[in-house]
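Entry 14. Structure prediction run on the chain below.
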Amino acid sequence: MKPEGEMKETNPGKENPPVTHSESSCFDPLRYRQPLDARKENKEDAKRLEKVKQLENAEKRRRKHQEEEKWKEQITEDQEIMKLKRDETERQIRRTKYNEEQRREQEQITLRQKSMEDARRARKEREKDWKAEIREQEQIKTFKKWKSLRRYAIARSLAIQKTKRLNMRKTSIIVHGVEESTATDRAQRNKEDRDCIRNILHEMSCDTVNVNQVIRLQGKRPAKPKPIKVVFETEILRNKVLSCAKYLKNKKKGEFNKIFMHENLTPRELRARKLLTAELRDRRADGEQNLTIFNGEIVVKHRQQ
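Output returned:
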């Protein structure tokens, strides 16, 4: 669009005459005002576009930086998780190795103890066999006078039975004065006798002594209760009970006043004991004091000062 000052009439169907140099040499600001404004607007648009591109690039860089940070955090977290898993796996491996070592050590200790126990048992068996062999040799020397094998076997079996009876007598005592049970069942009577013996041992402060057998013997006097044979585990326990029998003598009243006990002696030893007891009674009647029977003899007791 041309300015108003430059508008000229034109003939239709004819071209406008060319502009001469003289006409174009003069500068008309109104003629170039609109193109300058358009250029300015284009520059401003270009600046705005450049700013928009810069902002978009900055946003892209920021997003890229955020994605890189997230990626790094994810990698760091994954590495930490892998490290924790690896540490846990290593701990489990070490724990398994430690438990395996402990199990092997315990097995070795158990095997060592078992071997030591087997060796100790074998040594005891050898000693037992050696003692039995020595005892058998002594018996063979003693029974050389027997002419036949049958007599030797009979004598050997009798000697073994005698030894067993003597050993049983060494670990047993005879208790008198215990009332008999009125129960009809044999097991119930034996149970009541065991309870009575347990009460007697409690009164004698021998609660820790173990009793193997309690047997009611056949008495010769029907009016009095039958005696009881009590079998202990060892001779030491029997001696302990006999040494504590003095506590029953101090009971002036009650059911334990008439109870007394002594060693389980053979008939020969009983006869010898009766003679010693009669002699002791006579000597006490003559005025002798502090006498007692010890190891088949009458001796004088020494008082402890």
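The longest helix spans residues 33-142.
Filed with the rest of this week's runs.
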